[in-house]
Amino acid sequence: MAVFYVILSWTVLFLLFLLFIAFLGFCMYMKYIHMAYDYIPGPPRDNFLLGHIPTFLRALKNGDVIHDTFLEWSANYGPVCRINFLHQIMVLVTSPEGTKEILMSPKYPKDNAYKKIGNLFGMRFLGNGLLTAQDHEQWYKQRRIMDPAFSSLYLRGLMDNFDERAEKLMTKLTDVADNQAEASMLQLMNSVTLDVIAKIAFGVDLDQIKDKSVFTKAIELTLKGMVYNIRDIFFQYYPKNQPFIKEVKEACRLLRATGTQWINERKTAMLNGEDVPKDILTQIIKTAGKEDSMTSEDEELMLDNFVTFFIAGQETTANQLAFCIQELTRHPDILEKLKNEVDDVIGMKQIIIYDDLGKLIYLSQVLKETLRLYPIAPGTTRAIPEDTVIDGIKLPKGAVCFFNTYTTGRMEQFFKDPLTFDPDRFHPDAPKPYYCYFPFSLGPRACLGQNFAQMEAKLIMAKLIQRFDFTLSPGQSFDILDNGTLKPKSGVVCSIRHRKHNT
């Protein structure tokens, strides 16, 4: 027995020695990384091993907007700013030339961080869809299949469906106004954008589903899980977080199971020669059928894109609309100018046609200015496959470039008085922002759904302004909730009244 304990003791000591050597080796490797990259300007690391991860964790804990930290770092350290994540170096780039060089080129792929939203805690989420695909050929095939369904010409043919869903929101707002009550505009916008993406993209009327709020909750859960998965590398290893992780996985399952059901039902109906809606899903399935080959992985990618569109189509536009309403309540002069334009273009018409939207020029400016101050998806990243020079600073192969439109949109060198809400920045005759404004990203990987999103936003805002007055209720804050996407923290609770038109 004594011999056994001696052997056990020596085994434990040997394992501890190996752990010590491994830790020492990792520390030496970290020192090498620091020496290799520290010539790039950047804030002091919080921690030798963790780098700037503690800063991200503090922001998560305190409910701060981490993008304000990026803004501060850019001001202090310049247009190329180093950020350390353990052994990974991320470079925050605010140089317009650098942004143009990398985002406009297909040779800079999305980096490995996108795998963390492709899979959430071991559960497939966005997979290898359009947003997350790193392989260019895989991405290009998907884009080729999806493009026709999101063209302006095809969306124009869906205008009646857009208008019908927007009218449902007007009915709800009429009830609120009749009762001279208050309502959370964020909550209402979430509801209408969910209706829009379900009906126009997938031909599903959510009114026929017993509890459609499960989808809103699932989207909120998965986005929150995505933030923790990206910013806290230890999150999934804490026992106290397991109940939340379980909820996130169940939300992923719900969204993917829903997508599987809707896609299979549509394919079956098309095979049987049944009448099917002329919506985005039908167009995608038809285009996919023209491909030379569709593998089982391609079918899985279609499901990945279902989840991507379902979330992006609901969450981003709802948040933009809520931020827009919030700013209009703070700027009555801008709101009055907007009312005049809507009255001139729309008048008292109940049905708004596609051509009307193109005439709402000032409304377009207001929506663009909203996204400058409050870009719903603030940033994107690209891997650097070869040594690259940006703004005179060499970025070595293997680094990751981070582009943040929240940061550049609030920088004095790009926008005068950047915290002032001023739609005239986007007047047709004003100089175009030069690679410092990209709420839908830029280049070949720019957001496929931006035409869809802005059609929807313009239609809803035009109807809202045509028919109602809205005033922000007392006690509302103007804080931003950073939850993967940016949203108004207070929910933008407003009192709603019927608008009195001059006759």
Automatic annotation (TrEMBL):
Pathway(s) of this molecule: Lipid metabolism; C21-steroid hormone metabolism; Steroid metabolism; cholesterol degradation
Subcellular location(s) per record: Cell projection, Dendrite; Endoplasmic reticulum membrane; Microsome membrane; Postsynapse
InterPro entries listed in its UniProt record: CYP46A1, Cyt_P450, Cyt_P450_CS, Cyt_P450_E_grp-I, Cyt_P450_sf
Assigned GO CC terms: dendrite; endoplasmic reticulum membrane; postsynapse; presynapse
SUPFAM superfamilies (alphabetical): Cytochrome P450
GO MF entries: cholesterol 24-hydroxylase activity; heme binding; iron ion binding
Alphabetically ordered keywords of this record: Cell projection, Cholesterol metabolism, Endoplasmic reticulum, Heme, Iron, Lipid metabolism, Membrane, Metal-binding, Microsome, Monooxygenase, Oxidoreductase, Steroid metabolism, Sterol metabolism, Synapse, Transmembrane, Transmembrane helix
Sites where the protein binds heme: 447
Transmembrane segments: 6-29
The enzyme's E.C. designation: 1.14.14.25
Record field: catalytic activity: 4beta-hydroxycholesterol + reduced [NADPH--hemoprotein reductase] + O2 = 4beta,24S-dihydroxycholesterol + oxidized [NADPH--hemoprotein reductase] + H2O + H(+); (24S)-hydroxycholesterol + reduced [NADPH--hemoprotein reductase] + O2 = 24S,25-dihydroxycholesterol + oxidized [NADPH--hemoprotein reductase] + H2O + H(+); 7-dehydrocholesterol + reduced [NADPH--hemoprotein reductase] + O2 = cholesta-5,7-dien-3beta,24S-diol + oxidized [NADPH--hemoprotein reductase] + H2O + H(+); desmosterol + reduced [NADPH--hemoprotein reductase] + O2 = (24S)-25-epoxycholesterol + oxidized [NADPH--hemoprotein reductase] + H2O + H(+)
Membrane topology: Single-pass membrane protein
Cofactors that this protein relies on: heme
Keyword Heme: yes
Location (main, coarse): other
Pfam families named among the record's database cross-references: p450
Keyword Signal listed: no
UniProt record, GO biological process: cholesterol catabolic process
Task of the protein: P450 monooxygenase that plays a major role in cholesterol homeostasis in the brain. By promoting constant cholesterol elimination in neurons, may activate the mevalonate pathway and coordinate the synthesis of new cholesterol and nonsterol isoprenoids involved in synaptic activity and learning.
Sequence similarity: Belongs to the cytochrome P450 family.
Protein name, entry field: Cholesterol 24-hydroxylase
Protein species of origin: Gymnodraco acuticeps
Lineage: Eukaryota, Metazoa, Chordata, Craniata, Vertebrata
Gene symbol of the encoding locus: LOC117554294
